[in-house]
Write a structure and sequence with these properties.
Structural class: mainly alpha
CATH class of the largest domain: Mainly Alpha
Distance between the termini: 16 Å
Number of strands: 0
Strand content: under 5%
CATH architecture of the largest domain: Orthogonal Bundle
Helix content: 55-70%
Order of helices and strands: HHHHHHHHH
Number of domains: 2
Largest sheet: none
Radius of gyration: 20 Å
Length: 221
């Protein structure tokens, strides 16, 4: 279960706030994102967020011009986290294609690289907004293009590269949405088999060992 955002003022490691400032811009963004994920975009309201943080609504306007400005900032955060994160992982050098796919799999293990709950919230939002739908379509294209380029770097023909990229991408989204009742340990155990399906290649033992160590930082295995 995702943790609730910690406000700057409640973080013992954060620099103390000065003057009359009680919350930061990131506090507004993080709490708004939490509401977006849990309750949908319709519930991202300035007054409700202010009450949740126990501050006046007027402090919102120190950081944002309007509610729409906040919503635009949420979309920018989503693109910078999820789309940029997946593209970066797909472009990370690896000795083999299985190692490259494992780099992408790190997105699933670490929500700092790819926030799955946020992605689903934006997809739900896109059903109500043509603007968000256009942004989502653009992001999906960028992600698939990055994955296609990843397969192409390892010698897959163009048509096969884009097919494998789409299978990998859309299967992973569907897998996360299905939320199967299985342990992280089982998922890790199946990873080498998934790699063979996605790439047609056997992963190297060193690659699997590195990925296993990485997941231990984020999964209960």
């Amino acid at each position: 279960m995702a943790q609730k955002p910690v406000l700057h003022r409640d973080d013992p490691e954060a620099e103390p706030l000065v003057g009359n400032i009680k919350v930061t811009r990131n506090d507004w963004l993080n709490v708004a994102m939490d509401v977006l994920i849990s309750d949908g975009v319709e519930q991202v309201k300035v007054l409700a967020l202010a009450e949740r943080m126990q501050v006046s609504r007027s402090s919102f306007y120190w950081y944002f011009k309007s509610r729409q400005d906040l919503l635009d900032a949420l979309l920018k955060t989503w693109e910078q986290t999820n789309t940029a994160g997946m593209v970066r992982q797909a472009e990370t050098p690896a000795e083999t294609i299985t190692g490259a796919v494992l780099n992408v799999f790190r997105c699933i293990a670490n929500p700092d690289l790819f926030n799955t709950a946020l992605d689903f919230a934006v997809r739900d939002w896109s059903r109500r907004s043509g603007k968000v739908r256009s942004l989502l379509d653009r992001s999906d294209r960028r992600r698939v293009e990055a994955l296609t380029g990843m397969f192409a770097r390892y010698g897959y023909p163009d048509r096969e590269a884009v097919t494998r990229a789409k299978v990998l991408y859309y299967m992973q989204l569907g897998y996360e949405m299905a939320d199967p009742n299985e342990t992280h340990a089982h998922r890790l155990e199946m990873t080498s088999e998934y790699l063979k399906v996605f790439t047609g290649r056997e992963p190297m033992s060193e690659e699997m060992a590195d990925f296993t160590e990485f997941t231990k930082q984020h999964w209960d295995v």
